[in-house]
Amino acid sequence: NLSLAADSHLVCMQSTEDENTSYHTQAINIHNKPRRVTGASFVVFNGALKVPGLAGKSSIVEDGLMVQVPSETMVALRTSLRDMRDHSIGCGPNAEETVVLQWTVDDTNFNIGVKSCVDGRPLDGVPSIRVHNGTDYSGGTRIIRWTEVFILQCEDSDHTSEPLDISRLSESIARATCLALVPLLDLLSAASLTTLAVRTTIHPDNVGYEAGSNGEKLPPLYMKSLDDELVAVVHQAALASQDSPAVLELIFRIMEQG
């Protein structure tokens, strides 16, 4: 997702013309417009800086920013984040650059125009997490891959027990979904159902799932296979949720085997 507040953005360009598949960073911007604010895809903070007299060091890495700080600065940064306070880090020998972490109003200008594969529901402003280095499940000539999870609802429990682990829950749902659909990848592809989603509702009093592609529910053939793998997983998660309701929508893509 590109920031609407930025008029340019860092991108990582990978070369396919040589064996090393090297990459370089560029800043793309609006044609014939001055570059005022440059967006980045991520920020990484590294607390291992050990250069005497240097409070911080910033550098561009791929399409993001890395900020290296001493261990004591990292402790202070974590405290500021925990307390929801702004925090500034001077970078360079003379602090000629400043990294500012600033708390602002909740930004919901992301996933604009994205619609659910299950039923066409708008997902504007719904937070999502891209899945990197996930497991590919092979069905012979095709694979199925979990690529993203949308967090439609996630609330902390009022109890003293551990909160629902969204990451672990998503992984278990993804695994069950892939195992269920692997034998049916050719049929799904032939029916042009190559991008699909599973939306699960996890709560002790309300548990279930829906699955769809192209904004419509999946046919019964695929739902039966999903039932065999998913029902037990979502019910077990609901029992462990301790009144921490969650609604997650996982996105899967079917691709040709490379």
Order of helices and strands: EEEEEEHEEEEEHHEEEHE
Q: Rg, please?
A: 22 Å
CATH architecture of the largest domain: 2-Layer Sandwich
Low-confidence stretches: none
Helical element count?
4
CATH topology of the largest domain: Murine Class I Major Histocompatibility Complex, H2-DB, Chain A, domain 1
Biggest beta sheet attributes: 7 strands, antiparallel
**Taking all residues together, what is the mean pLDDT?**
88
Number of strands: 15
Strand proportion, as a percent range, falls in 25-35%
End-to-end separation: 27 Å
Number of domains: 2
Give the CATH class of the largest domain.
Alpha Beta
Shape: globular
Protein name: Smad anchor for receptor activation-like C-terminal domain-containing protein
InterPro entries: SARA-like_C (IPR022557)
GO cellular component, one term: early endosome membrane
Q: Main traits of this protein?
A:
2 domains, Murine Class I Major Histocompatibility Complex, H2-DB, Chain A, domain 1, 258 residues, 21% helix, single chain, 3-stranded mixed β-sheet, Gyrase A, domain 2, 33% strand
Could you describe the 3D structure shown?
- The chain has 258 residues and is α+β, with helices and mostly antiparallel strands.
- The protein folds into two domains: 8-101, Gyrase A, domain 2, CATH 3.30.1360; 128-256, 2-Layer Sandwich (Murine Class I Major Histocompatibility Complex, H2-DB, Chain A, domain 1), CATH 3.30.500.40.
- It is 21% helix and 33% strand.
- The protein contains four helices and 15 strands.
- The mean pLDDT is 88.
